[in-house]
Amino acid sequence: MLRVAVPNKGSLSEAASAMLSEAGYRQRRDSRELVMVDPDNDIEFFFLRPRDIAVYVGQGTLDVGITGRDLLLDAKVEAEELLPLGFAPSTFRFAGPVGDFTGVEQLEGKRLATSYDGLLRDYLQERGVNAKVVRLDGAVESSVRLGVADAIADVVETGNTLKAAGMEIFGDPILKSEAVLIRRSGSGGAANGTAKEIEILIRRLQGVLVARQYVLMDYDIRKDLVEDAAALTPGLESPTVSPLRDSEWVAVRSMVPKKETNRIMDELYDLGARAILVSSIHACRI
């Protein structure tokens, strides 16, 4: 069986399970379940702390896992990113008291509090900045006020927590993170006979990503306007064009980016298309 690590809590957990369900895999119904077998797909899921997943995968205990890119890099294990999954976006940034810092070079000799010490040490070393890294497991924003650090490096979403603590973001982002599928570096899945299962998992997850990003658009249009319409809805390969009872008209079907749906519908209507319909894509293989 393919052994897959899934986050058991936090911002990654619910979205990861939802994506696996959309990909056709059975998921747990009780949050207290730690292991769940999906015999139909010959796969076993292990629900673990997001921070531990890279460790288990890097050691080869589990075949693949879903975790954050920031957690993968911070763990400093022999694991690699296979596929970005498009959810749980975050940005890892520096922050300090308002007006104290403007760039990373000013952190020379300073104390930096973070929950991602491995990731931060690598970043500072690459830029030749010698600073003391103070590892904390939580409440990093309070470290400056409590005198533990001069500045912090932490995951920032809205920045409201930082403002409440009298701090501001400075410098370039350290890392842009999101949920990713990972495996042991260089394994390829072949060593334990799971290469095919990993390939199927990746293909299914890619199908979910495409299904979330695209919709199917159908419309009728006169034959002489097909080329102009196809320029608006080129699809992935080419739109499907089918004859109608009225020989002067054809029916067109194409995949279009979901976020551009209404703009494309308006432009098609202005061009002369009619009966413009949009349908959701529940699953696909590209």
UniProtKB/TrEMBL annotation:
Gene3D superfamilies xrefs: 3.30.70.120, Periplasmic binding protein-like II
Residue ranges of every copy of the Histidine biosynthesis HisG C-terminal domain listed in the record: 211-282
GO CC term (a single one): cytoplasm
Record EC number: 2.4.2.17
Cofactor(s) the protein requires to work: Mg(2+)
GO molecular function: ATP binding; ATP phosphoribosyltransferase activity; magnesium ion binding
Keywords from the named record: Amino-acid biosynthesis, ATP-binding, Cytoplasm, Glycosyltransferase, Histidine biosynthesis, Magnesium, Metal-binding, Nucleotide-binding, Transferase
Domain ATP phosphoribosyltransferase catalytic as annotated: residue spans: 49-207
SUPFAM superfamilies associated with the record: GlnB-like (SSF54913), Periplasmic binding protein-like II (SSF53850)
Described purpose of this protein according to its UniProt entry: Catalyzes the condensation of ATP and 5-phosphoribose 1-diphosphate to form N'-(5'-phosphoribosyl)-ATP (PR-ATP). Has a crucial role in the pathway because the rate of histidine biosynthesis seems to be controlled primarily by regulation of HisG enzymatic activity.
Protein name: ATP phosphoribosyltransferase
Natural source organism: Paenarthrobacter nitroguajacolicus
Record gene name: hisG
